[in-house]
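Researcher: I need the complex structure. Ligand is LPXRUNBV. Inputs:
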Amino acid sequence: MTVELVFTRRFSMGHRLIAGTSEKCAIPHGHNEYVKVTLRPQEPKRLDGHQNMVLPFADAKTRWHNFIDNSLDHALQLSEADPLLAWFQEHEPERTSRIVVTPGDPTTEIMAALLFAKLSAILAAQGGLLRVYEIELQETPTNTVKLGGDPTHYLPYTNRPPHLCWWNRPDMSISDLPVLRS
Ligand SMILES: Nc1nc2c(c(=O)[nH]1)N=C([C@H](O)[C@H](O)COP(=O)(O)OP(=O)(O)OP(=O)(O)O)CN2
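Model: Output:
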């Protein structure tokens, strides 16, 4: 028997895709998205007949939902190759902290993988009782990406060490802009 804890959170985002696959997606636009995560215990155990919890829901989800609400919600998602990044750095540097920077276009696929890695880092920092089994990122009511397994097998190669990639850190970061600039 497998027990799973499933949490869903909604957030709004803006992005654009500049790699040339779709002209309409190269214009900045936004979506109201849902991220649904399925967590499993690292070591499944029998309920204790008293509290009968894997972990209180609040303990399992609060830090993750803080990240969604305070870092991801209403952030702009841009490829690290997007010239809009340099525009913000020059004209509105105070707003660069609200930009999610992705290796390549910020598609639903890569955001699902980056969020999978971020939540895995957060859960590990919380003691590792739970692990991410699956993530579903619904970009629109008609488009969802579902991802399971090891996100490091799916993410593109980057020449930065793992700790200099925001998605590997159990903090609230959404970019590595100072690193990318140097
Ligand atoms: N594989 C992917 N393809 C596309 C992605 C993506 O993340 N992964 N994203 C987009 C755009 O963000 C776009 O806003 C949504 O695309 P699309 O389905 O083409 O547009 P609609 O919402 O209008 O689709 P309908 O289902 O017809 O309403 C594009 N492709």
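Model: Summary of the prediction. Residues 22, 25, 29, 107-109, 139-140, 142-143 surround LPXRUNBV (CB under 6 Å).
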